[in-house]
Amino acid sequence: MSNFGAGNGRVSRQLAEHGVAIEWTDAGPRIAGRGVVITPTESSALLDRWRESIDRFLEQERERRGGNDPNVGGAASVLAVIHACRETYNRVPNEEEMQEQRTELSRKFNLFYLFIQMMQDEASGERDDDGLSPP
After folding, report:
1. pLDDT tens across 77-110, in order?
2. For residue 104, which phi and psi values (nearest 5 degrees)?
3. What is the domain range of residue 100?
4. Residues near 117 by beta carbon (within 8 Å), at least 6 away in sequence
5. Is residue 91 part of a domain?
6. Binning pLDDT at 50, 70 and 90, where does residue 10 land?
7. Do 76 and 103 form a contact (C-beta atoms < 8 A)?
8. Dihedral of CA 27/29/33/36: which sign?
9. How many domains does the chain have?
10. Mapped to the 3 state alphabet, what secondary structure does 83-98 carry?
11. Rounded Cα–Cα distance for residues 45 and 108 (Å)
């Protein structure tokens, strides 16, 4: 079971600013917004898979971009989100789906990305006052 950031009221409030609600449960966070719900079972699987792959993608992006590139972390996180979604849902939305947000899968993907981005911002003590942008 994942408890990444469990019970963090500040993150929950910030996500609410973007139309996202989190209910922390014993099974994992229930993440709702953008017309979809990521169940605690789904979010736990997504978080576990994200956490299992993030170090690999950080190393990959450091080699690809150079260790001092400030975009390494963001790129690695996006790749880890894609990986987690593919492993959990057995499919990744295509670019058109992501742009139009017309499928449930594309909205879940986006919602999970927003959740991860806010959790990372909270962990690093940073917050972009412009709000969140999808990948």
Report:
1. 999 999 999 999 999 888 999 999 989 999 999 9
2. -60, -40
3. 9-124
4. 77, 132
5. yes
6. low
7. no
8. negative
9. 1
10. HHHHHHHCCCCCHHHH
11. 13
Does 134 map to a domain?
Answer: no
Would residue 35 count as lying in a domain?
yes
Give the strand order in the sheet containing 36-38. Answer: 20-25, 28-33, 36-38
Kindly report, residue by residue over 41-63, the tens digit of the pLDDT.
Answer: 999 999 999 999 999 999 999 99
- Tell me the average pLDDT across 19-30: 89
Q: Which amino acid would we find at residue 105? A: L
Tokens of 67: 């260790």
Count the neighbouring beta carbons within 10 Å of the beta carbon of residue 65: 14
Q: How far is the CA of 122 from the CAs of 10, 37, 48, 59, in angstroms? A: 8, 22, 19, 22
Contact 104, 85 (CB under 8 A): no
Sign of CA dihedral 17, 99, 130, 113: positive
